[in-house]
Amino acid sequence: MERQHKYRSAIKLRRREGQMKQKYLTLEEMIKIKMIDPPNRGICWEILAGDRQLFRQARGSRKNHQAWIGGYLDHIIEVMNIAVLLYPVMNRTRELSFSLSDALLVLFLHDLEKPWKYEANDSGDVRLTRSLRDKESQHEFRLRKLREYGIKLTSEQSNALEHVEGRDGDYSGLTRVMGPLAAFCHLCDITSSRIWFDNPLETGDEWVGAKRSNTEE
User: Fold this and answer.
1) Residue 119 belongs to what H/E stretch?
2) Does 213 map to a domain?
3) C-alpha to C-alpha distance for 128 and 134, rounded to whole angstroms
4) 38: alpha, beta or left? (left if phi > 0; alpha if psi -120 to 50)
5) Nearest to 160, CA basis, from 115, 121, 122, 107
6) Which of 85, 156, 201, 212 is 20 to 30 A from residue 195's alpha carbon, by CA?
7) How many domains does the chain have?
8) Element (H, E) at 128
9) E strand or H helix at 44, and its extent?
10) Is residue 208 part of a domain?
């Protein structure tokens, strides 16, 4: 009887934990349900609609994280979901100086050069495009794309976009270079790329609703 009671208690606990888990949102849900403030919300939607096929073919990296075809889009969706998960917890504990909208905008844009960054050679090996081999050229390319799309950023958002990857070369012991928004976005990015680097899984991901963007319905 005691064993049955423990078993039933464990089942109830798992069900309760499942009910408490936050649903994994699609990119469309995170943009269209007004999580990103206008006017950039509409521009983000135009970027997604206009370049979706290109995004669906891009890898998240060559080897380190989300390195499959479509991994770029999966990484973007993943970091944004991590932000939606973490922001309310942190903001309830101590009020944050930036909005969830700020974080989602930066995370949507933070790897914007990736669909153009990699190319496959004749043997199928993935390599860096010659013009985008260093961080500076990648950042400049990203800024050009933002101007092309008509995205306008605040100084805090610009700082976050520049330092989302935690660029060590800019560190100073006398000046705080990375702002709070940049640090939060870096937290989301490093979680996806170094802790959950294989997620979302092709099948059976533990996060309710999580799946790869190229998964057939």
Assistant:
1) strand 118-120
2) no
3) 9
4) beta
5) 107
6) 156
7) 1
8) strand 126-128
9) helix 40-57
10) no
Six token digits for residue 100: 């969830």
pTM for the structure as a whole = 0.83
CA separation for the pair 168, 159 (Å, rounded): 14
pLDDT at 3 over 70: no
pLDDT in tens, 167-180: 655 666 667 789 99
pLDDT of residue 125: 63
| Bridging pattern class, strands 126-128 and 118-120 | antiparallel
Find residue 128's DSSP bridge partners: 118
Q: Is residue 215 part of a domain?
A: no
User: Please, how many CA atoms are within 13 Å of residue 47, restricted to the half-sphere of its CB?
Assistant: 23
Range of the domain at 180: 2-195
Q: Determine the distance from the C-alpha atom of residue 200 to the mean position of all C-alpha atoms in its chain, rounded to a whole number.
A: 12
Q: Does residue 102 lie within any of the structural domains?
A: yes
